[in-house]
Amino acid sequence: MFDLLIQGFIAVLSPQIFLLMTAGVAVGIVFGAVPGLTAVMAIALCLPMTYGLGPAAGISLLIALFVGATSGGLISAILLKIPGTPSSIATTFDGGPMMEKGEGAKALGVGIVFSFLGTIASVAALAFIAPSLAKVALSFGPHEYFAIAVFSLTLIATLSSGSMAKGIFAGVLGFAVSTVGIAPVDATTRFTFDQVELNAGFSILTVLVGMFAVAEIIKVAETSRNADGAAAPMIVKIKGFGFSMPEFLGQIPNAIRSALIGIGIGILPGIGAGTSNIIAYIAAKKRSKTPEQFGKGTIEGVVASETANNAGIGGAMIPLLTLGIPGDAVTAIMLGGLMIHGIQPGPMLFITQAPLVYTIFAALIVSAFLMLLLEFWGLRIFIRLLAIPKHILLPVILVLCAVGAFGLASRVFDIWTILAFGVLGFAFVKAGIPTAPFIIGFILGPMAETSFRRGLQLSRGDYTGFLTNPISGTFLALAAVSIAWQAYSEYRLSQRPARASLLKLGGEE
After folding, report:
1. pTM, rounded to two decimals
2. What is the pLDDT of residues 443-480, one digit of tens each?
3. What distance, in Å, lies between the first and last C-alpha atoms of the chain?
């Protein structure tokens, strides 16, 4: 095994492949950092470039793009409170507030380091336990996926920041928006109002860019009208990665838990890093000794999000390499790239083309180190982007958002869509409604509906199949416990003011 891994390192560290990977990581970081551009776009645009390359060079370039784009989303998520990719949604929750408090360097440093560690952890999982984990994931059917989706949806209350009713409203609205278009299974059109453009529904990218990027642009534009011209907090000196060794060591348990969540969710087809970073964030908040600090600027939230989304890289590669099943859009393009070079993923791949498999492992490790070095080198440059006046920066970001939306399907309709969701996101801000539950509902809605209907088909309309299945029954039970616990917690919080008033009255007497 180690001999094969050494051969893989020798291959990827050759001058040609190493330079290709360096360029790939740099381009990936840019695509991840710019709102509206994603890892899917980066890999799809660069895939033709691999036709004339050998298998090792072509696959290494695609992996470098994947790693760079996944991590690059943290840059705009922290500096601008706009997630560059769906995998950095939860990074905005604490990364943005840290930036506002003048701790932008620390937030970026924490994000970069734990992105690196998450990637390394996922490579270790890919190398040592890939076949076993893939077999477990393959045993999951519609009943299990529906139960996982329901359990994840019940976590919405954790992100409701003081009002469970508002959080549930946002989650239900997100679920409702996800039903627009052609229905799964029976292919009937819903809520299209005879508009052909709505047949395909709304893309996660247009919703994400609108709800976060455009809404943030409108919000900043509104507040800047009455601003006194005070400059944004700037960081003059940055020591190391911006955080101390005790802070790093204190986040190790959080990082391990988040890496396991990212790897586990990455293995399951169709869920992806857009969900894993939010679930890891919720888990970190539940286990934290200071949950009240989440959303106000704590490194725990950044660590959880960035570790989980990068751990999903290796997780998504596990079913791709061992079973030939792509887990998301990125690995679907990766599958095409493998097949272009005559590589057929599956159980026999580890036997027939073992050297190439370990070259992929080496490429993932080298890409992680390149990502760490390039982002660390650019740390001071990223911070200085805040010196750009808002009246120049915001229009440029808006144009890039529009270009990214148009690039999805070359439709002007998608540009109008991001503007519409931008207005909705701004309305959420004004009404104090959290955006995260809306995104969770939108992402998990299609999976829950599709799995529910397929599960009913398998059990011939018998609803009890979801309960009698051991795995789905367990997750549904956990969902019920989660709802009950959240309701109890809300009740206890509502009773505190009443108790305080009674104690005050008793003291006056």
Report:
1. 0.72
2. 778 878 888 888 888 888 788 888 888 888 888 888 88
3. 78
